Amino acid sequence: MSITPEQFARIKSSLPVERGNVSIRQLNFLNAILYVLENGCKWRRLPREYGNWHTLYTRMNRWSKAGVLARVFAHLQQAQIIAVRLTVLSLDSTTVKVPPDGAGARKKTGRQPSARVAAGGPPNCIWLPQLTGAR
Question: Domains in the chain: how many in total?
């Protein structure tokens, strides 16, 4: 999935003006974004033909925060050049270790008060007060 120069000419009005020493042209930049979207690869794994991955990522991040990417992709879809819907998905792989008795194993001993409470220190658990009835 990539944009041709003719298709790029149709959406050029929705892009910001390039300023300064620009090493990666906007057409190549948009094609790099489409490559990442299509293949789901990391920015570091972009082929060299698109340019320096860090430069591309920095520009993408800047355009995203400024709302330029949303405007460009809306314009691309209105011009019927591409049909892409951008959604964000975040997966968390954090794990929490639970002691065996927390997972349903039988406890070997009876309940004993915390030594910290007996010593006057803060308890080892979180206490959440709940309202059980009206005053």
Answer: 1
The answer to the question of residue 106 being in a domain is: no
**Rounded-to-integer distance, Cα 109 and Cα 99, Å:** 14
Which pTM does this prediction carry? 0.59
What gap in Å lies between CA 124 and CA 117, rounded to an integer? 8
113: its two tokens: 């008060």
Domain containing residue 56: 5-78
The Cα 39–Cα 50 span in angstroms is 14
What pLDDT, in 10s, does the model give residues 82-102?
776 656 666 665 666 777 666
3-state per-residue secondary structure call for the chain: CCCCHHHHHHHHHHCCCCCCCCCCCHHHHHHHHHHHHHHCCCHHHCCHHHCCHHHHHHHHHHHHHHCHHHHHHHHHHHCCCCCCCCCCCCCCCCCCCCCHHHHCCCCCCCCCCCHHHHCCCCCCCCCCCCCCCCC
